[in-house]
Amino acid sequence: MKVLVSVKRAIDYNVRIQIKSDGSGVVTDGVKHSMNPFDEIAVEQAIRWKEAGLCDEVVAVTIGPDAAGEQLRSALAFGCDRAIHVKTEEPVQPLTAAGVFKAIAENEQPQVFLMGKQAIDDDASQTGPMTAALLGWPQATFASSIELADDSARVTREVDAGLETLDVDLPAVITTDLRLNEPRYLKLPNIMKAKKKPIESSSLDELGVAPAAALESLKTAPPPQRESGVRVESVDELVAKLKEKSLL
Amino acid sequence: MSYKILIIADHLQGALNESTARTIACAQQIAPDAIDVLVLADDGAAAIAAEAARIDGVATVYHADDAAHAHPTAAVLAPRIAAAVERGGYSHVLGPNTTFGKDLMPRVAALLGAPMVTDIMAVHTPHEFDRPIYAGNAVNTVAAPADRVLVASVRCASYPAAAGGNEAAIEPLELDVEVPSHTRFVGLEQQTSDRPDLQTAPKVVSGGRGVGSEENFRIIYNFADKIGAAVGASRAAVDAGYVPNDMQVGQTGKIISPTLYICFGISGAIQHLAGIKDAGTIVAINKDEDAPIFEIADIGLVGDLFDIIPELERAVG
Ligand SMILES: Cc1cc2nc3c(=O)[nH]c(=O)nc-3n(C[C@H](O)[C@H](O)[C@H](O)COP(=O)(O)OP(=O)(O)OC[C@H]3O[C@@H](n4cnc5c(N)ncnc54)[C@H](O)[C@@H]3O)c2cc1C
Ligand SMILES: Nc1ncnc2c1ncn2[C@@H]1O[C@H](COP(=O)(O)O)[C@@H](O)[C@H]1O
């Protein structure tokens, strides 16, 4: 069985982002980037399947600038066998990313395409279902557990009402939620080994994918600020304040 | 230019989810006179449609009753919605940004060849919207192409539910679209509780890692019951197994906007704050006076939650 995993380069989740004063976006130069946390969980899952003998090849894919090669190297250090880097200097939106992933899935013919449920930069949460739609494949989003069988998967999904279980035939797109697993720490020997693994470079043109209709970003601004609060010294004072506001 | 909006109803076990009325409130800012609702359900569709017909601003509620709609799988529903949108000549199709909408709407968008706007928090024009990015630490104003259907999900915490009292028309809708067999519903494990619903409750009490254990969470529940609040939690509390996943509040959990949010033993990570930015009054109780939660809290009290909760219970009577 072959598994494809998408890996997006994003500003690290610990960074407090800065908005450019001209409203054109957020500051990315000199800012720490890493693999989107949900994608790390996807890579970890695929590697666990490989270690358990459930799949024999794991291929990591990214769409992004040269620098995104770093995240592919991390994916290879986790244990992915090879990687595909679809190069573009301009960030792509989910519908275009889905078009690229469709083309790659058609070339690679994986049984499972694992993706993060959302990228923590654009918070779009679209690419998985869009890719599944374009391929006509089943989808199981927000997975907190996946049991793989030969030609289907049983997926537990984190939904607002609780936990939903679906059976999907393979091939399928599955997107990861936080509780699927805890990614391992990368060890130096694996990081060294990853340097020798192959990264194939590609482009939208080579894949025959035209950029899809997209949203135009007009402005990026800080969110409305909340007024600064007060400290109280005692429970009585707290309760008095809440009663004053008719909240209790 | 005339616009026509189709709202996809979110419902569970025969009842409409309040997120639908919130989505309609957003649609009213786009085209107040041309809002239809589509209910895809099994044999209970007509009853859900009747509920939707009472929401202000709705012109017609369509219901498509089919055993295949008994459970909301995107693979079944998306092609039907795409067909309904094309047949009805809709300019916009909106769903709530609940897990139902997050799973479904991008699949609809891709079938329609349209980019999607996730999480509308403000409407500027029928094609220009604000949406949060970076866990709500920035607001992005985007313009969607005017030459295609606009597919979007609505950030429910940004809109109060549209009022009731309407009597919209109700019509059945035949959607003759093949049902794929590749996706099969197995089950839904639900936590049942008599407490108010986390996503709509006016008061929410939540606990984090500082609560320490599943047993200790009892004091959070008890206090919440005393003031009639729903109960939420941080990711750390969910991951540690103190509470089930559906209680997580934050960037990747539920985004809520209660009038009162009281949190105990939560440090205030940006991902948690993303879920509570629209709360009316935020109260934080934490034993660490430097906890970042105090930077956003309206009222902060430094102290040990195990001392403070009993005192609070006494004080509120
Ligand atoms: C991609 C991603 C998505 C995430 N999404 C979410 C999300 O949706 N929601 C979310 O909540 N988190 C999310 N997180 C996790 C987030 O970064 C934090 O790790 C998490 O919110 C911490 O939870 P906490 O505040 O309960 O725990 P901690 O950060 O460990 O804080 C515990 C707090 O309790 C206090 N405390 C301890 N004992 C007591 C006591 N007796 N009395 C009073 N105070 C006490 C401590 O001083 C401390 O401030 C996400 C992380 C990532 C990477
Ligand atoms: N440019 C990209 N490169 C690699 N993976 C991506 C890219 N864009 C989206 N993805 C994948 O799609 C998931 C959801 O992204 P989004 O729809 O942007 O929230 C991410 O977690 C990634 O797995």
Largest sheet of chain B: 7 strands, parallel
Annotated CATH homologous superfamily of chain A:
HUPs
- The CATH class designation of the largest domain in chain B is Alpha Beta
- Report Rg of chain B: 21 Å
Structural class of chain A: alpha/beta
Low-confidence regions of chain B: none
CATH topology of the largest domain in chain B: Rossmann fold
Fraction of residues in β-strands of chain A: 25-35%
* Number of distinct helices of chain B: 9
Range of strand content of chain B: 25-35%
Write the layout of secondary structure elements.
The complex is a heterodimer of chains A (248) and B (317).
Chain A (H helix, E strand, L loop, with lengths): L1 E5 L2 E3 L21 E3 L1 H15 L5 E8 L4 H10 L3 E6 L6 H15 L3 E5 L10 H9 L3 E10 L3 E8 L2 E8 L2 E5 L11 H7 L4 E4 L1 H4 L8 E6 L8 E3 L2 H10 L4
Chain B lengths: L4 E4 L2 E2 L2 E2 L1 H11 L6 E7 L3 H9 L4 E8 L8 H15 L3 E5 L2 H14 L3 E5 L1 E4 L2 E6 L4 E6 L6 E5 L14 E4 L10 E8 L12 E5 L9 H11 L2 E4 L1 H5 L20 E5 L5 H4 L7 E6 L6 H4 L2 E4 L2 H12 L1
Parallel strand pairs in B: 1-4, 1-6, 4-5, 5-12, 6-11, 7-11, 14-15, 14-16, 16-17, 17-18
Antiparallel strand pairs in B: 2-3, 8-9, 9-10
Adenosine monophosphate (AMP) binds next to helix 1, strand 4, helix 3, strand 6 and helix 4 of chain A.
